Amino acid sequence: xxxxxxxxxxxxxxxxxxxxxxxxxxxxxxxxxxxxxxxxxxxxxxxxxxxxxxxxxxxxxxxxxxxxxxxxxxxxxxxxxxxxxxxxxxxxxxxxxxxxxxxxxxxxxxxxxxxxxxxxxxxxxxxxxxxxxxxxxxxxxxxxxxxxxxxxxxxxxxxxxxxxxxxxxxxxxxxxxxxxxxxxxxxxxxxxxxxxxxxxxxxxxxxxxxxxxxxxxxxxxxxxxxxxxxxxxxxxxxxxxxxxxxxxxxxxxxxxxxxxxxxxxxxxxxxxxxxxxxxxxxxxxxxxxxxxxxxxxxxxxxxxxxxxxxxxxxxxxxxxxxxxxxxxxxxxxxxxxxxxxxxxxxxxxxxxxxxxxxxxxxxxxxxxxxxxxxxxxxxxxxxxxxxxxxxxxxxxx
Length: 397
Ligand code: ADP
Known about the structure:
Radius of gyration: 43 Å
Number of helices: 9
Helix content: 40-55%
Number of strands: 14
Bound molecules: adenosine-5'-diphosphate
Distance between the termini: 74 Å
Order of helices and strands: EHEHEEEHEHEHHEHEEHEEHEE
Strand order of the largest sheet: 2-1-3-6-7
Structural class: alpha/beta
């Protein structure tokens, strides 16, 4: 780099000054210079825009134009080389204006010798290097700042996520404690009544009812605990599917009685329709059974007394289609995807509380199980017009 000549462009309509400048530059020892010369404003601007020169010397008087105009035009068209203005003696105002407009320096014509010229060029180049270094470090600082900002944003997001997860965990803990407490209270009070001695002992009828209540409450608790355990196992990839040929009608036959007695108790109707020709499916019967339990118990839960729940099974080219249809409260559009996420429950817009007590885990469980089987689950619903939960399990080939 040190051996490269410094390329200087002289813009001056006076050829004599070009000859003089060339002589001055050749007098400078130690550094080679290559001087180019243009006389006209237009040519000068074009040449300067090519940015091949290290420094430009601009005469102030350029026919109809001034060196100041050229300087401004060159700066505006992104000329990089530092510019030194050449002015006449006593043009002090012009010197100042040139410096204000962005000139690196000025030299007074007629009073410039080789040493002065060399120093002006050297200073101009150094100043330019300093400015470039400054610009680079500014860019670097800007990049660092941007990086720092984006790390800060990531941290803030991570913190917000953590807070949300903590809030959910706290909510969930509260919900679970609360929800486990009520069936447990039922169990304890039923056991207490069943254990009454002597003349306070319940009649056989009442004992049967209390046993029934205790059994249902225990089932509820077990269901909740299983949901929780299985969702976390599924999430951790720890639940192994025990696939075997799925005999869904037989599985339903086992469950139907339980569903029917719940329907009778809750004053709802329950129907099962199985179309013939169901496809052959390999699945984990216990998990699929729990998916159906969840969907049916939701249908009971989100339907008013007198409501009607229907379970349909059919097959198509794709696989086995199961539908759990109810004529209950339905699900607002904005929730239809989200209810399959963990802990998401439809809330009452007025109170902000869930429309029914629950954990928001059942459908997350259902989706994980169905997807683990390579299937799909979704809901068709309209508020006030019931819901149909549909899942499809791929037929095995
Ligand atoms: P949970 O019932 O314990 O709240 P789920 O994951 O089973 O949790 O359901 C999530 C939410 O989806 C429920 O809170 C409820 O708002 C809505 N939902 C589920 N099933 C139905 C249904 N059959 N009808 C109306 N809303 C339902």
